[in-house]
Amino acid sequence: MKSTLFLLLFTGTAAALWAEDSPLIKARDGSGVYGYKDTPKLPWCEWLVHDPDRPAPPKLDPGKPIVSSPPPADAVVLFDGRDLGHWTETDWEVSERLLVATGDKSPATRQSFGSFQLHLEWRMPKDFDGPWYNKGNNGVLLHGLYEIQIFDSYHEPLYPDGQCAAVYAQTPPTVNVTLAPGEWQSFDIVFTAPVFENDELVEPAYVTMFHNGVLVHNHQKVYGATGHKVLPHYNRKVSTGPIVLAGHGCPVAFRNIWIRPTP
Predict the structure, then answer these.
(1) 109, 173, 162, 116: which is closest to 139 by C-alpha?
(2) Residue 195 DSSP SS3
(3) Are the beta carbons of 108 and 144 closer than 8 angstroms?
(4) pTM
(5) Handedness of CA 237, 241, 245, 160 (dihedral sign)
(6) CATH number of 4-57+72-262
(7) Which entry of 114, 117, 151, 153 is 20 to 30 Å from 212 by CA?
(8) Contact (Cβ atoms closer than 8 angstroms) between residue 140 and residue 243
(9) What percent of the chain shows pLDDT beyond 90?
(10) Which 3 state secondary structure label does DSSP give 95?
């Protein structure tokens, strides 16, 4: 199943939209964090979407670099370095047993999932030469709708709800444990699918997540599908969907991707 939403938002066109965006505003506290002040206010808090004045998560050293470990016996191995049989057609490259975001056609899983535990490991390029909005920029779209951000938050002081491990345009991680480009990093995501009855939202989605082994979201409510400079929404009333890797013009590499559907 493919979503028109993620096909529009998470192709090569997205980077161009960022490049033509409205002027960036620096945070009032002098921290250097940049964002926007012409965006809607988030209904559940005092902040705007991509607000530079929203408190940034404190930086925390997650400890030693991650060590890749084999998937559990009941996992569906989505990528093991050999082929892309579980994914839709893509122009990304498989090189040295890694999946590298070298093209504009983002891969999506052929299988749809409801609630699940997802593990993936990723690495930003060490010497990326490109604009600020592409630095380490990628994303993991749950159901093809709800983006967990990948970004170089080791260096770039991007708006808190768009930094690495944020539920994009909604909720920053509780701490920033992003490692430097060139280091392998991990996401472990436990996702509870939204519930609909007769096209009415009965229960929203929730996400619990570890970044580099550190808890960064604990049963965090997902307020709807994500997008750049827009409010979240549950316009697509689905309780299952694909996993999508959303490239943004930066050759982020992936390995050891597996998923465990949960009741």
Answers:
(1) 162
(2) strand
(3) yes
(4) 0.92
(5) positive
(6) 2.60.120.560
(7) 114
(8) yes
(9) 83
(10) strand
